[in-house]
TrEMBL record, chain A:
Molecular function GO terms recorded: phosphorelay sensor kinase activity
The protein, known as: histidine kinase
PROSITE patterns: HIS_KIN, PAS
PAS domain span: 6-58
Record-annotated Histidine kinase domain positions: 158-369
Catalytic activity reported: ATP + protein L-histidine = ADP + protein N-phospho-L-histidine
Keywords annotated in UniProt: Coiled coil, Kinase, Phosphoprotein, Transferase
EC number: 2.7.13.3
NCBIfam families named in the record: sensory_box
Coiled coil (residue ranges): 124-155
Signal peptide segment: none
UniProt xrefs under PANTHER family: PAC DOMAIN-CONTAINING PROTEIN (PTHR43304:SF1), PHYTOCHROME-LIKE PROTEIN CPH1 (PTHR43304)
UniProtKB/TrEMBL annotation, chain B:
Domain AB hydrolase-1 per the UniProt entry, residue ranges: 20-128
Record protein name field: Pimeloyl-ACP methyl ester carboxylesterase
Similarity comment: Belongs to the AB hydrolase superfamily.
Listed Pfam families: Abhydrolase_1
Top-level taxonomy: Bacteria, Pseudomonadati, Bacteroidota, Cytophagia, Cytophagales
Signal peptide: none
Length: 369, 266
């Protein structure tokens, strides 16, 4: 085996290197060019040498760039690097390139010359175009989403003000009429108005829940590290009245620290505890919180002794405005659990439930550790 | 002096003289391009530099696609700058597209200008029958396409490795940033306005005495175009530099300075 270093032939290296080489005068005239570059551009040696200038290989954008940036930089600092410019070859050949150039330091030369090394970046260029395209598409999508979000926020504001106002008037007038004794006892009119009142209440509830749901996405979401117990406590405070009225007993162990939005996770507990109380059985509600830590997630359980439901329906309960009960039997909007699902999606977690009619339900959710 | 206009055009004033020289940069550049030239005039003149709206550190929010759909919008800005600084009889030095901006401004308000100095002017880049501008419509379309598809190539993509010049340390950095500073939509619009414009008719309206500084060869504003401008502006002088390219104020600053000097002293 030959262990001598390979002896390079300088001329062969110049002509056939996998790189384009070119020497130009300060005005751009090409005074030397290698075989590789000629091949790329489709020109014969005689067609280029002392016949064309570097600018002749450029389109108008390239020419402007060359005259206003490349050449001034070359003359001032003696070199340029990684200039991305497209060269025009013969017969509409277009060659995307990366150009480096430097001044030739030859004291004896009367004129200034520059050596250009030219790298073919056709493949890289097509990837770049793909990237630009993908970015444009992503930007358009973001624009569209922003618009949709803005419209949703506007919708929420309409719901809060414009829908609630007439509802308040209706409820207020019915209340006033009752107070003034406009409705005779046991009359059909009284029955109708009581129905109107109940429906107005229901609508108020729905608007309130819808607003709450809309707010999940529109809020600024600061994430922080805190103990899940804090979220639990805030959630409980939000339904303090229901807890007291129902004699519910809630046990909460010491829960782990999490990173998330405290207020949203408090709303999550508020919804889960609230549901356990709302869908209670004959006995006083008993709610137990438990958790387990796995490799990459925390799983929290909220177990109750409520009425439970068929486990086949577990997926349905998280659907938007999906309910297992009529509003007349147990008032509700079917928004609370879908709001929980949304909150967990934002936190990178999931939610699910196991249940059996008459034996209570267990709702569980996961959060990344 | 109006703060609004100063901010809009990032106006900078310095120098010890009383007579004002206003320097206006060309397409894709900003006022920093004059850095090599201005020191030669600081002692004897008041130097006024500015960025066209949409370029350099001008107020981007002031860019109005309608107003700047012709060079007139820029010419109005120029006259507003002079008016707000209470300047009259200024010497105006414009490079490339700003030559024509100066022509339009001086044709409208001749009392504001004593002399015009136009470096690489072109009233019309596109060939038209007998007229040779150096470019075809196809060239301009290509340019717009380049700006659309390869804007990155002109700015961030080339940015990473540019080594400073020991003599002019911060200079190459500035050169590099001037393209990056331009919003792509504005760059495209400005390119269309610049390279599709035809201001040949406006040249004869100029009654201010004018110097045309021409390079050879200059592929953007060829010699024939410079000669045309000289022929059309009645009171004009023409000087052909011994330098190639389109930016002699960068590549042959000594020749530019001496041409301006000798013109101003005659």
């Amino acid at each position: 085996m030959n262990t001598q270093p390979f002896l390079e032939n300088a001329e062969d290296l110049y002509q056939n290197a996998p790189f384009g080489y070119m020497t130009v005068r300060a005005d751009g005239l090409i005074v030397n060019v290698n075989a590789t570059l000629l091949k790329w551009l489709g020109y014969e040696w005689e067609e280029i040498l002392l016949q064309k200038s570097f600018q002749d290989l450029l389109d108008m954008g390239g020419k402007i760039y060359f005259e206003t940036h490349m050449m001034p930089m070359l003359l001032m600092q003696g070199e340029i690097s990684e200039i991305n410019i497209e060269l025009k070859g013969k017969a509409s050949i277009k060659l995307p390139t990366l150009v480096n150039a430097s001044r030739i330091h030859d004291q004896s030369a009367l004129e200034t010359y520059f050596r250009f090394s030219i790298l073919d970046i056709t493949q890289r260029k097509s990837y770049e175009l793909e990237l630009i395209k993908a970015r444009q598409e992503a930007e358009q999508t973001i624009q569209r989403l922003k618009q949709i979000n803005a419209e949703l926020e506007q919708f929420a504001s309409i719901a809060s003000h414009d829908l609630q106002a007439p509802l308040r008037t209706i409820s207020g007038l019915i209340g006033l009429s009752e107070k003034k004794g406009h409705f005779p006892v046991d009359s059909e009119v009284t029955k109708y108005f009581s129905l109107i009142k109940r429906n107005a209440q229901r609508m108020k509830l729905m608007i309130g829940d819808l607003l709450e749901y809309a707010r999940i996405d529109s809020e600024e979401l600061p994430f922080e590290e805190f103990s899940l117990n804090e979220a639990c406590e805030i959630g409980l405070e939000m339904i303090d009245d229901q807890v007291k009225e129902s004699n519910a007993v809630i046990t909460i162990p010491e829960l782990p620290m999490v990173i998330g939005n405290k207020l949203q996770l408090a709303r999550l507990f508020q919804n889960l505890f609230g549901n356990s109380i709302k869908y209670r059985s004959e006995s006083d509600p008993v709610i137990r919180v438990a958790f387990e830590e796995k490799n990459d997630e925390i799983r929290v359980f909220v177990k109750d002794n409520g009425m439970g439901f068929e486990e086949d329906l577990a997926d349905q309960v998280f659907g938007f405005m999906k309910r297992l009960h009529s509003h007349d039997s147990i008032p509700g909007t079917g928004i609370g659990l879908s709001a929980c699902k949304r909150i967990l999606a934002i936190h990178g977690g999931t939610i699910g439930a196991t249940s059996e009619p008459g034996k209570g339900s267990t709702f569980y959710f996961t959060l990344p550790r | 002096m109006s703060i609004a206009i100063t901010k809009r055009n990032n106006v900078k004033i310095f120098g010890k003289g009383t007579q004002a020289i206003v320097f206006a940069h060309g397409y894709g550049c900003d006022q920093k391009m004059w850095r090599i030239i201005t020191p030669a005039f600081e002692k004897d003149y008041r130097i006024i530099l500015f960025d066209h709206v949409g370029s350099g550190n001008s107020d981007q929010s002031a860019y109005d696609f309608e107003k700047y759909s012709s060079l007139k919008g820029y010419a109005e800005d120029l006259n507003e700058i002079l008016y707000s600084l209470d300047l009259q009889k200024v010497i105006f030095v414009g490079h490339s597209v700003s030559s024509m901006i100066g022509v339009l401004a001086a044709a409208d308000r001749p009392e504001l200008y004593e002399k015009l100095i136009l470096i690489g002017p072109s009233p019309c880049y596109i060939n038209d029958n007998e007229y040779f501008g150096g470019f075809s419509y196809k060239d301009i379309d290509e340019l717009i396409a380049t700006l659309e598809s390869n804007y990155l190539g002109w700015s961030s993509f080339i940015a990473p490795v540019i080594i400073g010049n020991p003599e002019l340390p911060e200079y190459s950095e500035e050169l590099k940033n001037s393209f990056c500073a331009m919003n792509p939509d504005i760059a495209k619009h400005f390119a269309k306005v610049t390279f599709l414009g035809d201001n040949r008719e406006d040249l004869s309206r100029v009654c201010t005495s004018t110097l045309i500084i021409q390079c050879h060869p200059d592929v953007i504003a060829p010699v024939r175009v410079g000669e045309f401008v000289h022929k059309k502006i009645p009171d004009s002088k023409y000087v052909l530099l011994n330098s190639a390219g389109h930016c002699p104020h960068l590549t042959a600053p000594d020749q530019v300075i001496s041409s301006i000097r000798s013109y101003l002293t005659t």
